[in-house]
Design a protein that fits this description.
This protein is of the alpha/beta class. The chain folds into four domains: 116 residues, no CATH class; 170 residues, Rossmann fold; 25 residues, no CATH class; 90 residues, no CATH class. Strands 10-9-12-13-14-11-15 form a seven-stranded mixed beta sheet. Strand 6 and strand 7 form a beta hairpin. The termini are far apart. GO terms for molecular function: ATP binding; ATP hydrolysis activity.
Length: 488
């Protein structure tokens, strides 16, 4: 035994010596040729195939999507089998642990797929570059290595890797952290989206709520259908109604229900149509783009009319001066046009990416250009109006935990006789102190509804009085003209 180990050690030492001399004295072309034949011999003897998935790839060294997917997949499946793990803090809703465990460097696990064993390994290489003793840096390159028997090449490359990518996508969606984006020039910056609104807590009629949910579910599963009809996989929603009726809350509920990121587009911060297109390209799929209060964002509704007036006004000298002043004002502000916005919503550029929802909100739908909100651009129009009794019951459950109360019939009657937004109803229902009871909150709401009813009756009476005065003035004016012989 001792003699056998001595011979093995001597053989290894001789091999290393020959390899060192070979690498030092033989030219590079000859080394490359020898390596090529050595690899052929090794592949003939060695029955396994190895695939490497590097962390960075491409000319611009972008992070590899395949590496990210494998990392997600192994993080879910390796924590129970690997002996060395690394932990990373995460912040995702509905998770049992705030830590994500994944394979540590130089660790390997065995997995079985359809009766075939595969080996996954996590590795890293470190190359040091040193130009001066005081200035050195290290370049770490991480990669995953998949090893399997060459007899199962087709099974692994055609089925197993596809399974890994699909599984990683499902895991990512389950653990996805939603983001809220805002624009600055042509770039997006984001924060974590943590709005708690859901359709269960949304104050509106159950039938209308169910209709919206069904529409969203149909859209989410409609990839094949949209491709069949030759239309970009997107959908537009117009939310309109008085302030305080829950338009922004509706957007948050849609994002949480669909598990989509939210892009809050501020049109006044966009320089021109070209920058608007760049922002659109930089949005991801599975997202909601929101333009809130679009009637106030830019003067899009009257631009065509103003442009026509400028052209006609150039006939006169004074009109030309006024037109020049208007042009200077336009240079200082946003040059986004209605046609540019329409092209992003429903033109060729709208097909860049898929599974997107576009939402407009406005308090005054009548101010918007009909071309902006026509069907096909804003596919579904949703009116969010004043609080009804069914919406009140949702708010009572949310704020007070009540399903019924003896004061509910009185509140129902008052809600039919007056106009109060869900935001105002919620403010009156919210307890203002620790010792404030349920009855007190309901009485506060009743008093507010009664005051609102009185104010509404006063406004109605004032409007009727003004109309009566106008009618009398018109009649008196007509009689006076008749007496003076103006009317025969």
């Amino acid at each position: 035994m001792y003699k056998m180990w001595t011979q093995a050690g001597s053989l290894m030492a001789s091999t290393m010596f020959i390899y060192t001399m070979f690498m030092r004295f033989f030219p590079s072309p000859l080394q490359a040729r020898v390596r090529r034949y050595t690899n052929k011999f090794t592949s003939f003897v060695y029955p396994y195939i190895r695939i490497r998935f590097h962390e960075f790839t491409g000319e611009r060294l972008m992070k590899s999507e395949a590496y990210n997917a494998i990392q997600t997949y192994l993080s879910e499946h390796s924590s129970q089998r690997a002996s060395k793990l690394k932990a990373e803090a995460i912040k995702v809703k509905d998770t049992r642990t705030p830590l994500m465990l994944s394979m540590d460097d130089n660790e390997e696990i065995i997995e079985e797929f359809q009766g075939v064993k595969v080996w996954w390994g996590s590795y890293k290489t470190t190359s040091k570059t040193q130009s001066f003793p005081w200035n050195s840096s290290s370049d770490e390159k991480r990669y995953y290595k998949l090893t399997f028997h060459k007899h199962y090449r087709s099974l692994i490359t055609d089925s197993y890797l596809k399974h890994v990518l699909e599984e990683a996508k499902a895991i990512e969606m389950k653990n996805r952290q939603l983001k809220l984006y805002t624009n600055s020039k042509t770039r997006w910056s984001h924060v974590v989206f943590e709005h708690p609104a859901t359709f269960e807590t949304l104050a509106m009629k159950p039938k209308e709520k169910e209709c919206i949910i069904n529409d969203l579910v149909k859209f989410k599963s409609g990839k094949t259908y949209y491709a069949k009809i030759g239309k970009a996989w997107k959908r537009g929603y117009l939310l309109y109604g008085p302030p305080g009726t829950g338009k922004s809350t509706m957007v948050a509920a849609m994002a949480n229900f669909m598990n989509y990121d939210v892009y809050d587009l501020e049109l006044t911060a966009v320089k021109d149509n070209s920058d608007l297109r760049k922002l659109l390209i930089n949005t991801s799929s599975k997202s909601i783009m929101v333009i809130e209060d679009i009637d106030c964002s830019l003067d899009l509704t009257g631009q065509r009319k103003k442009r026509k007036e400028k052209v006609e006004g150039r006939e006169g000298k004074d009109s030309r001066k006024r037109g020049d002043e208007d042009d200077d004002d336009d240079d200082r502000g946003s040059k986004v046009t209605l046609s540019g916005l329409l092209n992003v919503i429903d033109g060729i550029w709208s097909a860049c990416g898929g599974e997107r929802i576009m939402v407009f909100t406005t308090n005054f739908v009548e101010k918007l250009d009909p071309a902006l909100i026509r069907r096909g651009r804003m596919d579904k129009h949703i009116e969010l109006s004043y609080c009804c009794y069914e919406a009140f019951k949702v708010l009572a459950q949310n704020y007070l935990g009540l399903e019924s109360h003896q004061l509910f019939p009185k509140i129902e009657k008052l809600l039919e006789e007056t106009k109060m937004t869900p935001a105002d109803v919620a403010e009156n229902l919210m307890p203002k102190s620790l010792d404030e009871e349920v009855d007190t909150c309901l009485h506060n709401l009743i008093q507010a509804l009664e005051r609102s009813k009185v104010d509404l009756e006063k406004k109605k009476a004032e409007t009727e009085r003004k109309q009566s005065n106008v009618q009398k003035t018109s009649e008196n004016h007509g009689e006076g003209m008749e007496e003076n012989g103006v009317i025969n």
